[in-house]
User: Fold these one by one.
Assistant:
Number 1:
Amino acid sequence: MRAIKSAVLISLIRLFGFYVQIRAFLAGKRPVLFVRNGGIGDIICTFPAAQALKEKHPGCLYFYCCHPAFVVVPEMSGQFDVCLGVRHNELIPVILANKFSVYSFVYADEQAGQFSTEHMVDEFCRNHRVVPLSRQPKLVVSEKALEKARQALATSSPAGKLITIHIGPSWKVREWSCEKWQELIERFREKGFSNFVQLGNDQHMGRKLGNVCELQKIRSLPDLGLDGTAAAIQLSSLFIGIDSGLLHIAGAVSTPSLGLFGPTNPAFRIPLETPALACSTSLPCQFCHHRLPRLHWQSGCPNDIQCMREIAVEDVLARALSLLEQGATGARN
């Protein structure tokens, strides 16, 4: 059965290659493929390297291949002619590399016996030996998506600055407790803030990750799709969230952001050239995702996920207020 499945996948990838050839022939251009088999943040971090690689292949037809759930992300970058959702796209470089220019993006944390030592953007650029024009990826949200988000936000919208929040779900080791998120909301209210929206759902690449903790005294939005979610983040004064794709979206739409980090190092993930801060602890085991042996197993760790448990509400609040103050005074760098 496994052999049959492999043969079918290989045939489908070859059929996909035939489709690419037809599209390129009709356009009168040579095809160049960019491939990332990963989540939203990973995809966004490939854009600076992809932009630099395009300079090596002028006048070509540029394809971006990723999981079908995330096709809108490369579309919003505006860098690619054709964006396609392809399952098992990790096979594309293996099967089609002798037919087209194919660039696959992989970082050390994903490789057996290796670990990352730099920001994902820089690692992708170094792997492909390019220097990016800008290290900060950008997304352009359509006016249609912005209007959809404005309408959703206008329903019973409290006055004041909009703060969007993403608490998960994700790997258990990357989550902060619902109780602390709720305490953070209450502390914000004491400071006079009342306009909050909780973002996110329980799906990732077609899989249910877990139940979403629904915070009290905070709104959630109808399913706006990824482009609508990006619009809501762009319209907000501040985004606060765990290490996730939405944190990368905040950086890509120039919204100030605050990330909560435990097993992953914010120096390797946080937006590079937009206002962003991180909250973490000083535990010796923190950032274990980037070392060997890796201590966590996504759903837990030997230290009871202390790196996230010990992030203090007061620290998160203080950093969030500093970002809001910067926005109020126009300090956006």
Number 2:
Amino acid sequence: MNNHKPHGPHIQFNLLSLKDFSEDENYQLNFYLFETMKISKGSLLDFPSHWHRLCRSFQLLFPHSAILFDKNFDVSGVQFFHDLQRTILKKGTLETYRLKLSLTPLNLWGEMTPLYPHPLLGTESNHQNAHHNAHPQIQFCLEENTYLDLEEIIFGMKSKVYYQHKFAHRPLYQNFSLRPVPSSDLYTTHNSVTVPIFQNSRGELTETATANIFFYDREFGGFITPPVESGLLPGIERNKILTRGLINWDGKEIPVKEQIVKSEWYKKQHEGKIPMFMTNSLIGILKNNEKIQ
């Protein structure tokens, strides 16, 4: 494992390299897998789950990669975890960081960046624009004219497989984030953050650009979240919640389950005027302000 190199507030390091990045076509074309996890008090959170998802996706999308047969590539992740943990501790800080691990058939590298008071704000500029609001109010909106194309082909597979993996080449999300406000990936006002929700070409809601999402269904009496088959990432936090089958909301244990969520159903709920929450490995669970009636 190479020593990391400071880069401003960022720390970048190569973990395994079979070829220079300038010769790595997948890297140049943004065709690589990645995982984003949280470092808290010098420790990696949920590393086994992230590593397992990364390896599973890699073996499916790059089954003939030379890196799989390299003696240094530990698919179990045990030795790699200890090496990575030592690299993190060498930094000598107990601050909270975001760790992004990226993997092509030829390279595995990491990048650590500081998490500001609330990770949802993402960048220093967003953090400043939100006037140091460490707990922003969350609003959700449906992107009615933006659809996941379930028939798109990449690496010979339909995009429902492609969206189930944390793949860097995600044109819908990337293009969406380049649009001007208010249709940006994530934009802030003085007291709130508005997060768009995507849908697929069948009119099924999927996820946001950065998180899984849960909706309160009054008929069910609990929260529902779209199934992976609708075209979304099986998030680590999402899986924890579904495995437990319950979420604590205002001191009450509320049931949760997977269910197809149609955009028509969402619109009938007064455009998100229902209890909702979003999850990922950096923010944990982030709720809107709506109450369960």
Number 3:
Amino acid sequence: MKGRQKGAEMIFSSIHTQDDYSNYPKAVQRAIEYLKSNDFTKMQTGVYEIEGKLLYAQVFDAMTEPVSDRKPEVHEKYLDVQFLVTGREKLGFTPDTGNYEVDERFDERDLIFYKKVENVSVYSFQQMYTDHRLQMENLWK
């Protein structure tokens, strides 16, 4: 688990910008195109396969919770492209050094919760990438 931070990137953007996505991994480019071409306000909650289990959208309604009620999470196999359709959200980010103590692990969901993390940067979002999740396997290969 050491060195997981190597090659890690965080991208902040909006589907409404004219950003040049050509430097992003191809799977991220396909995810952004999917976000741009679908009206998430009309989609039911659930999982939408885009490229089978390799690339899919998980649509859900979420209520913001106090930070004290949330646990830091990480994925080893998948990465999230977060998309906020309506409302506001705050997300915290920190590099995963591989030194944090695991609280819970769900291998079948590629989900690890840590007890606590350090050096968290918090960002506020309004109608940007957040509530709807696209998960992609092995993006950086």
